[in-house]
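Encode chain A's predicted structure.
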Amino acid sequence: MSVVRDLRVLLRLSGFRRLLVVRLLSQSADGVYQVALATYVVFSPEKQTSPAAIASAMAVLLLPYSLVGPFAGVLLDRWQRRQVFLYGNLLRALLACGTALLILASVPDWLFYASALSVTALNRFVLAGLSASLPRVVDDDRLVMANSLSPTAGTLAATAGGGLAFAVRLVASDSDAAVVLLGAALYLCSALAALRIARDLLGPDPELIQPRLVAALSSTAHGLKAGLRHLAQRRAAARVLAAMTVMRFCYGALTVMVLMLCRYGWSDGESEGLALLGAAVAVSGAGFFAAAVVTPWAVGRLGQFGWVVACAGAAAVLEPALALPFAPVPMMIAAFVLGLITQGSKIATDTVVQVSVDDEFRGRVFALYDVLFNVAFVCAAGVAALVLPPDGRSVPLVVAVAVVYAAVAATMARWKRVGAVI
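Encoded structure for chain A:
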């Protein structure tokens, strides 16, 4: 398979290989931790979950970081990224242990959410650093290949971590705290793996680093403004970011729908609902893997913009056809298709941003990228909360998402015709 051959080529690069290990361990921990949160919030027997409750949880966990994310990006362009991975993962391991203790103590929800927020905030910081570091260990000719394999491998690791968490949760009831501690152990392993990377390999360049926190924070507002201005001058990057944000909104709305279907629409008990959600996560992960195989070939023939057009157009047609029956089997197929489409679009978007944006601004732009993802996901959850009935079956939501996908495809096709092709 070409994907195996490409991976062998990249793994010969020691910097890429070590960065990939950090990503795999970090994102597998993310998968474990996120499933622990989801099962605690959605599937705990004592909780009566509703779309509004899910939307509120997402808002509490994601929106506060969205306010500070761009400022973290400025720091990401000044601190050594290797050190961010080391200390960020160590801190996440410690905070995850705190979350486990709070679950055992049955504290009020606001205190649990505050602890979870601290971990997820660092998660976005580390992911932005991983994307910004990739061009430092891979040359431009292999960047599309690396963007196909590295983030997708990380997503598959997160899916595997989530699957492990589901297995632990199904085998041992009321084991959310144990699952969170498993995530903490994986965060610790990721921090130790970062020590194998040379301290200055991942950038930014030494002359751009401000080692004093006060000095870095004092320039945050100016740096953020400069980063936004830089992005505005890179029209291709700005356009694919806009398209990806809207597609993320669609994915978020459908995620809430599937959660409610698994909880109430397709099952009568906690274990059955968890098994169905685990299956949806697994087939979506298979779609992510398929995107890694297909995207380099598709980009070579359609270009970055053309591939995003194809992904959005396919989603507009297939999403209503598969989702409207509101049956488990067609919905699982939809999960695979949307996994492929979402990850394929993200690979193309990552590449356009990395190629278009200068290294000294990449941290800020990728932090902004993550913020757009968070805001889109929370907004989607809010819309879903207004539309979805308790069992998750909503024809208007499915149709509206298809229309939005079609609008993205049409807009990107028009931009492609006017010459915004990379």
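The chain has one domain: 2-417.
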